[in-house]
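Regression test case RT-17, inverse folding.

Input:
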């Protein structure tokens, strides 16, 4: 299992939902427009998919009226034996988050830390998950799209899904190597021909002795010119490095200024945040005080009501006691009469009315306090987000500053080395004579020196010089001849290597397709159809493709395409191929959206049973999106029901 749970926040029709997934089949069902496909789209976006059929811009996937959306995948990293799928994270769960903002900024987070798309792709590649490969994640309408792909595209897609890309890469690498060797062989052949002509030239050419001194003078001048040309070149190198250092220093100064500004802004925002927190605490204390006062007034009103009731009782008792036949003593009757007068003299009703008015005012104050508290909390959260953004910006500036400093240090070392070499070249040039203006390049001077050397050798009346030049070019010719022989041998070896690697690629591809073909035919047989999966143009890796043929209702098998078969037949054939391929796919996670929309009930039931049996023992996680769950049993699958309630997609049932 790859995904344990998907958490969606403000993504398309979802405001906030948590969707648990299990190993095996996860069926997402619900009426059209409920948000089923949006859930799979959220998963693929979180896995790094950049282009979607729903929208050209990822920012359009944010829920209407919201500025930001988040999709978090809880990935299963529990140990399999003694090893975790991703050993880098020593924990059972990995949180992979992708944040989309309305302004077009998107980023990833791995365990609440910022991550690049390359980091995410590297993580998923270790698991064999490629969200761009429709054989792994087949979105809505992709079942139809698969049929219109070329044979070559289908084959490459299969190679990527099952992990056979290295075989193709090996063949292409060997072919490139062969191309380089053929080019090298052609170059060596031309050089060999040129060397032979030069050797013949030195055999035949002799010059006059009178020209020798002039050529020797020219040779010394060329040496001097070459030395000062080298100095000029070294000076240009040093100058370029100094200019580059100035640019880096300017960038560093700019970063320092931006850092100061960012720090000031962060301090300001942090101060504002702290101030808001203090204001919130003041409101909280004020609320406590108001609640206490409210409690006192309510208690007073309650007591006054109680006293009024007791007053009524005392009046009744007093009337009874005034009766001469009463058994109460005159002294007791006199005491009761005094208490009654005392209670009657207190204006309890006025007191109750006064406290009720105060209570009404207190309730108004409490409501106002609650409104201000809520407004303050929203403002505090907004300022908190700004503080977080400022901290991220400051961290990025510090990272850039470190890079610039490293570049400056590298340039400084290079400049130091360049100046050292420049001083050495300058010392050497000064030994040849005063500085002269150089108008030719080092290469042109060297070419002219070689020509002059050739003339000097041809004009030398000393036999040793002629012999030396002859031996030099003879040696060069022999070396080139030997190299030509070696290149020829390398060509033969590389041809054999290309042949061997091509055979290896063809063998593994054919072996895979043979096994897939057997499963494909078994699945089609249950749908009363026949067909075949085979390799086309296997002799040429560039033209090689995957050919899928199918025939329904006793018809002759014909290539699967978007025109020959009906919609139900195309989806049945495509799903039969996917099921046949599934046991070879590297990814532990696969998904398909509304594959059964054009199928008749019989084929829908056949494909669903085959899907369950294929995934059951494959230790894989499969997400199936369908308008109906009728063909899937709850005991064999994880049923997730999605509904749209008042414009919001909600998860109604997870069984």
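Golden output:
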């Amino acid at each position: 299992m790859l995904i344990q749970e998907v958490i969606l926040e403000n993504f398309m029709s979802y405001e906030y939902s948590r969707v648990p997934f299990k190993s095996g089949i996860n069926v997402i069902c619900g009426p059209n427009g409920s948000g089923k496909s949006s859930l799979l789209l959220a998963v693929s976006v979180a896995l790094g998919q950049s282009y979607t059929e729903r929208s050209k811009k990822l920012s359009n996937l944010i829920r209407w009226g919201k500025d930001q959306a988040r999709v978090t995948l809880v990935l299963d990293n529990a140990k399999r034996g003694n090893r975790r799928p991703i050993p880098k994270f020593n924990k059972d769960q990995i949180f992979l988050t992708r944040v989309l903002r309305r302004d077009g900024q998107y980023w990833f987070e791995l365990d609440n830390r910022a991550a690049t798309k390359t980091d995410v792709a590297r993580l998923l590649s270790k698991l064999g998950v490629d969200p761009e490969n429709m054989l792994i994640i087949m979105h809505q309408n992709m079942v139809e799209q698969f049929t219109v792909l070329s044979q070559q595209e289908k084959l490459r897609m299969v190679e990527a899904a099952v992990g056979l890309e290295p075989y193709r890469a090996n063949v292409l690498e060997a072919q490139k190597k062969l191309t380089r060797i053929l080019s090298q062989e052609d170059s060596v052949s031309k050089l060999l021909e040129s060397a032979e002509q030069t050797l013949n030239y030195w055999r035949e050419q002799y010059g006059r002795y009178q020209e020798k001194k002039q050529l020797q003078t020219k040779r010394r001048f060329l040496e001097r010119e070459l030395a000062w040309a080298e100095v000029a070149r070294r000076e240009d190198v040093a100058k370029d490095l100094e200019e580059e250092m100035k640019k880096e220093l300017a960038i560093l100064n700019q970063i320092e200024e931006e850092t100061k500004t960012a720090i000031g802004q962060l301090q300001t925002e942090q101060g504002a945040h702290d101030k808001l927190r203090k204001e919130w605490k003041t409101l909280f204390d004020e609320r406590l005080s108001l609640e206490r006062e409210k409690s006192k007034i309510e208690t007073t009103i309650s007591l006054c009501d109680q006293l009024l009731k007791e007053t009524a009782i005392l009046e009744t008792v007093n009337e009874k006691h005034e009766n001469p036949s009463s058994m109460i003593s005159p002294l007791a009757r006199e005491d009761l009469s005094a208490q009654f007068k005392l209670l009657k003299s207190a204006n309890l009703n006025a007191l109750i009315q006064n406290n009720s008015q105060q209570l009404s005012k207190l309730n108004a104050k409490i409501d106002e306090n609650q409104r201000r508290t809520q407004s303050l909390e929203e403002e505090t959260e907004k300022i908190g987000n700004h503080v977080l953004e400022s901290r991220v910006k400051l961290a990025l500036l510090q990272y850039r500053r470190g890079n610039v400093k490293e570049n400056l240090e590298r340039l400084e070392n290079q400049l130091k080395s360049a100046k050292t070499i420049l001083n050495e070249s300058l010392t050497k040039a000064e030994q040849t004579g005063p500085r002269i203006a150089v108008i030719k390049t080092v290469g042109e001077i060297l070419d002219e020196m070689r020509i002059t050397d050739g003339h000097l050798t041809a004009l030398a009346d000393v036999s040793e010089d002629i012999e030396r030049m002859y031996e030099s070019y003879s040696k060069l010719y022999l070396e080139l001849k030997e190299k030509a022989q070696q290149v020829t041998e390398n060509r033969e070896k590389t041809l054999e290597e290309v042949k061997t690697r091509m055979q290896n690629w063809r063998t593994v591809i054919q072996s895979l397709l043979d096994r897939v073909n057997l499963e494909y035919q078994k699945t089609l047989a249950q749908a009363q159809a026949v067909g075949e999966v085979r390799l086309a143009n296997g002799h040429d890796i560039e033209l090689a493709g995957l050919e899928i043929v199918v025939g329904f209702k006793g018809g002759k098998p014909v290539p699967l395409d978007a025109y020959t078969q009906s919609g139900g037949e195309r989806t049945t054939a495509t799903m039969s191929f996917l099921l046949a391929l599934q046991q070879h796919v590297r990814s532990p996670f696969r998904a398909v959206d509304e594959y059964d929309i054009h199928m008749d009930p019989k084929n829908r039931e056949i494909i669903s049973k085959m899907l369950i049996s294929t995934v059951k023992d494959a230790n894989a996680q499969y997400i199936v999106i369908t308008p109906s769950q009728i063909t899937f049993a709850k005991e064999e699958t994880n049923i997730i029901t999605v509904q749209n309630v008042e414009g919001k997609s909600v998860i109604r049932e997870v069984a």
